[in-house]
């Protein structure tokens, strides 16, 4: 299944169309349509589970994600410090959000998602072959569900997570990054689109 198969228009979003949740050190638009973001050190999104702390100071460039729509973010995975991370953040409020993307953890790049409803729930799987390549993460909102998919380059989409999201919830979404353990993380975002939700959960 092509995850963007549905009626409606897919639109490339400009980096100026979002609002920063916790502005980064620097966000530099490039002439080729890319955005280079430098994260502040010791930033993250997490709530309590296992680690015992709450962090809500990661960087997210967010725009509306109404019910019945989907959003994609593309970026280059070229980071290599513990818990370096980038991808797509879907946010209702500080206690209800989903982040999905690539995180460097325990010596390898991992594809995963954190679903937070008061407490954070993390799932991940190693994808070392994705390092140094362009990854796209997609969140599709339909009914009471948020379907999260990802792919590298133009390979097939992989289902990452199916999470609950109330149909009447007011949500925003967009590119995010965090640098929990170091200074100087820079992430190169290459695309940001908004369009219709996926036509179906399965092919």
From TrEMBL:
Question: Pfam families attached here?
Answer: DUF1349 (PF07081)
Q: Which InterPro entries match?
A: ConA-like_dom_sf, DUF1349, UCP022704
Q: Please give the superkingdom of this protein's source.
A: Bacteria
List the PANTHER family hit by this protein, alphabetically.
REGULATION OF ENOLASE PROTEIN 1
What's the protein called, per UniProt? DUF1349 domain-containing protein
């Amino acid at each position: 299944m092509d995850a963007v198969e549905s009626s409606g228009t897919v639109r490339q979003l400009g980096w100026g169309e979002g609002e920063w949740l916790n502005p980064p050190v620097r966000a530099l638009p490039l002439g080729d349509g890319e955005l280079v973001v430098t994260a502040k050190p010791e930033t993250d999104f997490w709530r309590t589970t296992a680690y015992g702390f709450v962090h809500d100071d990661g960087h997210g460039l967010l725009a509306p994600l109404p019910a019945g729509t989907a959003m994609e973010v593309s970026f280059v995975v070229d980071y290599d410090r513990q818990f370096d991370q980038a991808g797509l953040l879907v946010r209702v409020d500080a206690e209800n959000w989903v982040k999905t993307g690539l995180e460097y953890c325990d010596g390898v790049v991992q594809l995963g998602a954190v679903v937070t409803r008061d407490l954070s729930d993390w799932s991940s799987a190693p994808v070392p072959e994705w390092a140094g390549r362009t990854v796209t993460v997609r969140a599709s909102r339909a009914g009471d569900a948020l379907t999260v998919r990802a792919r590298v380059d133009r390979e097939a989409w992989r289902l990452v997570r199916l999470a609950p999201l109330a149909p009447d919830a007011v949500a925003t979404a967009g590119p995010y990054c965090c640098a929990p353990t170091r200074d100087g993380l820079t992430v190169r975002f290459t695309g940001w689109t908004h369009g219709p939700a996926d036509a179906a959960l399965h092919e």
